[in-house]
Every structure is written in structure tokens, then in C-alpha cells.
Amino acid sequence: MASSEPFSLEGIDRIPDPVAHVAAGTAPGSATPPAEPSPTRADRQRLARVLVVAAVAWVVAVVAGCGVRPDLGRPAVLGLLAALGLTLALGVGLVLRPRARGLPAGVRVVQHALWVVPAIFIAGALATGVGAGDEPLAWTSMRGCLVLSNLMALGPLAAAALLLRRSFLAAAGWRGAAVGALAGLAGTLGVHAHCPCAEIGHLLAAHGPPIAVGAVLGGLFGLARGRV
């Protein structure tokens, strides 16, 4: 019997709930917490300092073990080493230093780094190198420096991979490639401190490739591990 009151709620409990099956069901998926705790800002700063020191020590140790070039004090040699070192320091700051409100560098800055870094090396090699000698450029004269320069770049690459894992919120491939190019530049700088050959062809073909190799490896790492 219906209630005589126009706004009575009598009998409302007998109305079937149209979404009862939704409440009784299970969620389609559940969030999986990370397997390891995220480091605090202080933890990341301490880790960054340790890894930077380790990366520099790696390059220095390989150079010391293989020997420093005898003409290290020549202005052309010191000039190119200084230009590469300054490019490396500024590049790391521009690409990795947080901006306002902790946001990362813009994608355009990261993309420009991928051509500016090799361009500075090429310009320095052309400005300080000499023409080809009597012997043509050959694999036998290149392979030692290619192996050594990429070996030197491994330390900075490994340090960057440990520090920047799960750090890229966007454009992970571009950011990883830029960091990899800078790590490769560290190998280029190191091998230039060791190898006394000043021929432009040798500088470009044997000292410069770690920049490209580092960019490729860094880009792959960014895509695979930069965001997860």
C-alpha cells in the first residue's frame, strides 16, 4: 500500500540496485607497487656525486694506464681538450639540471645537444688538426683508438645508466641519446689525451665515433629503462 505522504521513502529498500553487480565484482587490474623504494632527493645527490667521481676516475685511469701523449702541452692539444671538457660540463648541466619547479630540460634543448656536441668536436678537430700524411687512413691505424675511446666511454655510460634509470618523464629516447652522446664525448676527450696523431681524418674517424655510439646506446636505454 503506497504511503499517503508525497515524499515518503517507504519501500525504497525493495528497489533493486542497478549497479550491485559492479560493486560485487573485482577491479579489472590492480596497481603493482615498485619492487624497490624510490630514492630521496638527498640519496640521488649522493649517488650522483659518487658516480661522477667514478666516471672521471675511470677515464683518467684508462688514460694513465695507456699513457699520456708526449705533446700534451702543445696549445692546439690543450685547446681542443679544454673545448671538449667545457662542452661536456655545460652539456651535462643543460641536459640534466632541473628547471623551475623541478621540471626537466625542454625537449628542444635535448635535441639540439645531439648535433651541437658532435659539431663542436668536428670544428675543434678541423681547427687543430693537420692534413693527411704520407700514409692513407686505414683500419690498422684506427682500430686501436676506436677500441680505446669506446672503452673509456663505457664508464660514463654505465654511471649515467645507474643514475638515470626511471628518471625520464617524457621524451625518454631523446634524453637518453643526449646523455649517451655526452658520455661518448668523455671517451673522445680521453683518447685525445692519449693519442698523439693530429691528422684530421684520424681525429674524425677514430676519436669521434664514441659520440655517435653513445647516442645510440643512450637512446636505446632511455626507451627501455628511462621511464620504468
List the topology elements:
Blueprint lengths: L19 H5 L16 H26 L8 H22 L10 H22 L10 H26 L7 H23 L5 H8 L1 H17 L3
Helix pairs in contact: 2-5, 2-6, 3-4, 3-6, 4-6, 5-6, 5-7, 5-8, 6-8
Walk me through this protein's architecture.
- This protein has 8 helices and no strands.
- It has 228 residues and is mostly helical.
- It has one domain (41-225).
- α2 packs parallel to α6, α3 runs antiparallel to α4 (107-128) and α5 (139-164) crosses α7 (200-207).
- The longest helix is centred in the N-terminal third of the chain and has 26 residues, at 41-66.
- The radius of gyration is 28 Å and the shape is elongated.
- The model has no long low-confidence stretch (mean pLDDT 86).
